[in-house]
Amino acid sequence: MLARAYAAIAAGGTLRPVSLLAVDEPPKGERVVSASTARDLTTMLEAVVSPGGTGQRAAVRNFHIAGKTGTSVKAVAGGYGDDHVAIFAGFAPASQPRLVVVVMIDEPKGAYYGGDVAAPVFANIVSGALRVLAIPPDALPAPALTVVADVRVRP
Questions:
Q1: 3-state helix, strand, coil in the chain (%, to 5)
Q2: Which of 10, 140, 18 is nearest to 68 (CA)?
Q3: Of 76, 70, 77, 78, whose CA–CA distance to 108 is shortest?
Q4: How far is residue 6's CA from residue 99's CA, in Å, rounded to a whole number?
């Protein structure tokens, strides 16, 4: 369900049916949020992966990534225990999404925050999948400007 929610945001607010078959055209879907809201959410999710965000370890070089960290304490009889679930959910590339990935790590040892535990796993999965699928980067650095000549003309 979490992956479908992120897929709807990635698809501009349209929830599409799940299919295991390759299709030439995406199936019709149902609008669940406006395109404007989906764009705003994507911008917010990109900020999570930016420097200073809780999910910066989900970053993939040369790609805009949109996602969110999550950390929860597991419930036990009568309240909450000491065990956690670390989560990172997101999509890539953020400008033209092709992949949605959700990483849930049940009872991580040591560090347990989603940004520390699940985000790096997300980055590894997504970077490999982007490479295998030959998806072009959407965040290449601007090429350096090279000055080949400095010509001055006197009147």
A1: 30, 25, 45
A2: 10
A3: 70
A4: 10
Q: Which residues pair with 15 in a beta bridge?
A: 30
pLDDT at 21: 84
The CATH number of 2-132 is 3.40.710.10
Q: What's the rounded Cα separation, in Å, for the pair 130 and 100?
A: 11
Coil vs helix vs strand at 2 = helix
Query: What is 22-61 written as a DSSP string?
Result: --SSPPP-EE-S-HHHHHHHHHHHHHHHSTTSTTGGG-BT
Burial class for 80, CB neighbours closer than 10 Å (0-12, 13-18, 19+): exposed
> Could you give the CA distance from residue 33 to residue 30 in angstroms, rounded to a whole number?
9
**65 falls in which pLDDT band (50, 70, 90)?**
very high
Residues 6 or more apart in contact with residue 114 via CB below 8 angstroms: 54, 55, 69, 70, 71, 86, 87, 88
